[in-house]
Amino acid sequence: MTEPNPSASTAPRRRHPLPQPGHVTPAHTLQWLTAGWKTFTASPGTWIVQTLILIVVLSALGVVPLLGWALAPLALPVLVAGMLSGARALDQGESLRIDHLFDGVRRHAGNLLMIGGFHLLGALLAALIAAAVGSSAALTGMLVGAFAGVGLAAGGVMLAVAVFTVLWVLLLMALWFAPALVMLQDVSPLDAMKLSAHACLSNLTSFIVLGFILYVLTWIAMLPAGLGMLVWVPVLAGAMHAAWQDTFVRRPALPALVQQNSEPGREA
C-alpha cells in the first residue's frame, strides 16, 4: 500500500505566465484612435445606448448620500471592462449587444471592483500627500512672515500641485490597461496594475503623445453640451482595446509567410 505524497497534495497550483508588454511607437497612437473610430462606426447605435447607460449608472451612484464619491470610482473599471468586452466581440466578427456593458459584472466582478478600490485609494493618497506638502509649506511661510513667507507659501502650493499631478499620472498609467488585463487575460488586479504601469513607463514617449491627444479630444468632445462624449467614449473604448492588443498580445506574422509560400512557381 502506497502512502500519499504530502508534497504533491500541498504543492501550489502553477500559475499561467503573466503577459509581458511589448514595444509600441508614437505612430501606434494614431492607429489606436483609428481603430477606435472603426469600432464605433461598426455599431454606432448600440454604442451610444451603452454610453448613455454608463453615464446614467455613474451619475446615479455619484448622488448616493455619503457614499456617492466612492461608488462611482469603484464601478468605473467594471463598466469599462464591459465596453472592452464589446470591442473584442466586434474585433472577433461578432455582433455588439447592449448587455456587453455588464460583462464585467458577470465575469471578474470582484477583481474589477478591487481595481476600483485601488483607484480610489490611490487618488486619496495622492491628494493627502499633495495637501501635506502644500500645508507644510504654507505653515512655514506663516512662521517666516513678510514677503519671504508669502513667496514660500506660494511656492509650496505650486509644489503640491506638481506632486499631485505626478502621482495622478502614475495612477492613470496603472489603470490604463488594468481592466483589459483582468477582463481579457484573467490577470489578478494588483498584477494588472503593475503590468499596466510597466507598459506605460517602458513606452513613455508613446503614452505621453497618447495622453496629450486624449486630453485635447476629450475637451473637444465636451464642447457641444457634452454630446460629443456619446461618440468619444466608445471611440476611447475601441482605442483602449487596440492599445491592449498591440502592447500585450503577440501577433505572429503568419499571413505574410503563407502568402510567400503560396506564390506561383515557389515550392515548399
Q: Helix count, per DSSP?
A: 12
Q: What composes the largest sheet?
A: none
Low-confidence stretches: 1-14, 251-268
Distance between the termini: 56 Å
Counted beta strands: 0
- Helix content class: over 70%
* Total separate domains: 1
The backbone outline, from C-alpha atoms, is globular
Radius of gyration: 23 Å
Give the structural class.
mainly alpha
User: What order do the SSEs take from the amino end to the carboxyl end, as H and E?
Assistant: HHHHHHHHHHHH
Q: Report strand %.
A: under 5%
Q: What's the rounded overall pLDDT mean?
A: 85
Give an account of the 3D structure.
The protein has 12 helices and no strands. With 268 residues, the protein is an all-alpha fold. It has one domain. Helix 2 packs across helix 11, helix 7 packs across helix 9 and helix 8 packs across helix 9.
